[in-house]
Amino acid sequence: MDQNTTCQAASPLTLAKIQALIDAGAAQPGGLLPVLHTIQDATGFIPPESVPLIADAFNLSRAEVHGVITFYHHFRTTPPARHVVRICRAEACQSLGVATLIAHAEQRLGCRMHETSADGTYSLEPVYCLGHCATSPAIMIGDEVHARVTPSRFDALIKKTRESA
Ligand code: FES
């Protein structure tokens, strides 16, 4: 593939730029996870076209790289939705009824955990502790954390994202 090819429509990064990120990280011991984070931070996901480049740089098989990417829920292999909604499923949030909130969120957004709504507006993802255990349940929309989120507060937060779109 041409190194100047742009990865998927949503990614502005060319494979040549991704290769530069890989090269910078491949020299570091234990550099695989930092490289995956760097690519995802830059593009929003790990483009499948980058897997052979990563495998090559780290002397791994494509299957091994794919295995690492899929092991960590944090990594995405498709472009993210416009709004990524993360709901904490760790212990404190569970004890304060996050299961009810998740059921409500899935119904409200029209997608289940690890999925994206049909219109591509929302992705719903689990997260394990947002550091707001004393004020759970906690969620994160984009980069912003919200605590004590009830179903009605969730609806208000989602409404805000629609208004800001
Ligand atoms: S357990 Fe949910 S914020 Fe810590």
Automatic annotation (TrEMBL):
Family membership: Belongs to the complex I 24 kDa subunit family.
Species annotation: Noviherbaspirillum sedimenti
Alphabetical list of SUPFAM superfamilies matching this protein: Thioredoxin-like
InterPro entries, per database record: NADP_DH_HndA-like, NuoE-like, NuoE_N, Thioredoxin-like_sf
Entry note: cofactor: Binds 1 [2Fe-2S] cluster.
A Pfam family per the record: 2Fe-2S_thioredx
Chain positions recorded as [2Fe-2S] cluster binding sites: 88, 93, 129, 133
GO MF entries: 2 iron, 2 sulfur cluster binding; metal ion binding; oxidoreductase activity
Domain of life, source organism: Bacteria
UniProt lineage: Bacteria, Pseudomonadati, Pseudomonadota, Betaproteobacteria, Burkholderiales
Keywords associated with the record: 2Fe-2S, Iron, Iron-sulfur, Metal-binding
Name used for this protein in its record: Formate dehydrogenase subunit gamma
Listed cofactors: [2Fe-2S] cluster
